[in-house]
Every structure is written in structure tokens, then in C-alpha cells.
Amino acid sequence: MQHEHTTVSHRFLEVRMESIGGLGANLAGKILSESGVLRQGLNGWYAASYGSEKKGSPVKAFIRFAPKEIEIRGTYPVDEPDVIAVFHEELLHEPSTLAGLREGGTLLVNTKRAPAQIRSQVGRDDVTIACVDALGISVREKTRINTAMLGAMCHVIPLLDVEAVRTGIAQTFSAKYQHLLDANLRTFDAGRDEVIEQAPLHELDVDGEDAVAIHPGVTPKKHKHRALGYDTAFIGGTIPTPGNSYHKDLTASRNGFIPAFNVDSCIHCAACEQVCPDACFVWETRDNGKGRQFQYLTGIDYQYCKGCQKCVVACPTDALSTIADDEEYVLAHRVVHHFAKEVEVR
Ligand code: SF4
Ligand code: SF4
After folding, report:
1. 281 CA to centre of ligand 1 in angstroms
2. Using CA positions, which residue lies closest to atom 6 of ligand 1?
3. pLDDT band at residue 238, thresholds of 50, 70 and 90?
4. pLDDT for residue 5 is more than 60
5. Which of 38, 232, 263, 285 is most buried by its number of CB atoms within 10 A?
6. For atom 3 of ligand 1, which residue has the closest CA?
């Protein structure tokens, strides 16, 4: 597939990474920009924007490249990127994540889902959708997702020299974490190899009803840029970003695993409740059949679950077990806290 941003001869190449504190987007941005400038001879600029620097808070990283004969003077954030790399798919719910993505650009998402499903969610027919299961790769290799995302970015941005970025990763890890180097290089290669892409729908030679027939789940829509602003803001200007204390969505803090609940094995002892740091367990008061009221565990509200697995360790039966994090499973099995039903904002 020939991407529009194969060269930067016509103008800058601009990349924006949308991430969550703890996923390593800042380090990925540094490695990528240094590789472009020091090893490929490009002009480059890099900056990151983050709030409290704590795990789980939103992070944006910006990269701008230009050929060496073109100076980069601007230090403003990347508002109209050629490529947006989303480190956690939960961020797709946030309107500002896709803001300004250029027509013909690329949306790269860390997800197990297919490009057609992502396209259906974001409503952009005019861009390439690229999906990579960076979390799955990092779980497999016991690394972090940022090196998998670096590999995927090398796949979708042909301008980037794979060996230059590989050398950047090697230098970064050999300085302090030599024992993690081989696993991170394997993670990088897998990220590059395992990208699944879908071109903009007009390039697929299908449109309208045909697009739906060929790509189930795709709803043809007029191309629209969903900028965050007057028309799209929540009442009061609230930004329910993952990590925001209003919505308290800890989904993006998980590192690949969730607890699964099997009610048939549960003895309702509340050992899980006592160790859970985020009150994820949802209880219901019912008659115990002997005329007494009793607390029964009904399930887990995964919105508040950071995936620490303390509950699995504490459970005396096999009612709780560790499984791979999976959005479809979470949607099907989440038991919503009674109070959360009152403040649901999506
Ligand atoms: S610790 Fe296990 S058995 Fe006890 S209430 Fe929780 S899930 Fe049920
Ligand atoms: S994994 Fe951690 S946060 Fe999630 S329900 Fe279990 S104890 Fe609570």
C-alpha cells in the first residue's frame, strides 16, 4: 500500500501519539525523533504533553519531520497530523483523540479488533486504518507496548528507516536495561510484521452499500473531522478522558489481564472485596432462603478495574481467574455499579 506520507518533500510529516501515562509514548517519541534526526539526517522536532505525570493520566506526544533543507521553526503542537498512533483503544471514545487527522492520513490503533470495526467506530472513511495487537505482543514478550507501537509506526510510515529506529531502541536499552534488549527488539519486529491495514474506502473501489457488503460493520459516512470544541463538548466543559477523576475509567491502566468471575464457584466470602483497591465488586442484598438478608456478589464493574489481580490471589475458590484483557469480554460481562448507572456519560 502506498501511503501519502511516504516522503516529506512537499511539506512536514507530522505524527501525534495519543496515550496514557505508563504506556511509554514519551520514550517512543524520543527514540523515533532521535532516529530521524541523528541517523536519517532529517530535521525534526519532538515534544510531549502530559499533566500530573502519573500512571493512567492522558499523554500526547508530537513529532514533526522535514527534509534537511527545510527548517522546522514551529514548536506548536501537532494539530493536523498525517498519522495518529493510539496506544490504548479506550482513547477512541474521547473526541479529541482523532481531532485534525488529515484526509488520506493513517490512524494506527493498538487493538485486537479489525480495521473495519475501528472504522465503524470512528466514522472516518477517508483515512487508512491500521491495527496491531501491541498489548498481546508485549504480554507475549514480557515487554511494554511502546516498542511494538514503534514497529507498527515504522510499518505505516515508510519514511522511517527500520534499522535507524532499531538502533535507537538498542542504544536506549543497552544503556540501562541490557537484559530487556532482545525481548524489545523482538517486540519491535513483531509490531512491524503484525499490522493489519485497510485503505481509505474510496481506494478499495467500493462505496455506499458495497462497502458495507465487503467490509461488514462499516457504515459509510461523510468524512468529518471531530474536533473537540463548542459543538462536541460535554455540558460544563467536562472532559471524561480515561484517567479523569470525574469518570474514573481505569481501563487504560491495565497491562493485558483482567479477572474473570465464575459465579457458580463463588461462596460470597468477600475476600476479593477486601483486597480490591478500587471497589470493583458489585454486591446485591437478597434473602438467603432462611429468612435472612445476605450479600451476594453479582460481578465486576470493569470500568474501575486496573487489572492488579489481587482479588484472584485472595479468592479461596476458583471463582476468580486471570484472563487476557478483551474489550468484547468486558462489555459482555461488566456488571455496572448502581451509582455508575446514574452518571453514565457515554
Ligand atoms: S473471594 Fe472468590 S469466593 Fe469470595 S466472594 Fe470473591 S469471588 Fe466469591
Ligand atoms: S484486578 Fe485488582 S482492581 Fe481489578 S477487581 Fe481485582 S483487585 Fe480489583
Report:
1. 10
2. 272
3. low
4. no
5. 38
6. 266
pTM of structure: 0.74
Quick count: other Cβ atoms within 10 Å of Cβ 245? Answer: 6
The confidence band for 59, taking pLDDT boundaries of 50, 70 and 90, is confident
67 in contact with ligand 2, CB cutoff 6 A: no
The stretch 57-85 carries a mean pLDDT of: 87
What pLDDT score does 335 carry?
Answer: 95
Domains within the chain, CATH numbers bracketed: 4-237 (3.40.920.10), 254-343 (3.30.70.3270)
Q: Residues of the chain with pLDDT > 70: what percent?
A: 81
Mean pLDDT value across residues 164-182: 90
261 Cβ below 6 A of ligand 2: no
Task: Compute the C-alpha angle 1/124/109, nearest 5°.
Answer: 65
What is the spatial distance between Cα 169 and Cα 286, in angstroms, rounded to a whole number?
56
CB 233 within 8 A of CB 85: no
Residue with cell 539526517: 41
Closest atom of ligand 2 relative to the 306 alpha carbon: 3
pLDDT recorded at residue 228: 59
Ligand nearest to the CA of 276: 2
pLDDT of residue 114: 94
Report CA(294)–ligand 2 centroid distance (Å).
Answer: 23
Enumerate the β-bridge partners of residue 129: 107, 198
Residue 2, C-alpha cell as written in the block:
502506498
Per residue, the 3-state secondary structure of 160-228, as one string, reads CCHHHHHHHHHHHHHHHCHHHHHHHHHHHHHHHHCCEEECCHHHHCCCHHHHHHHCCCCCCCCCCCCCC
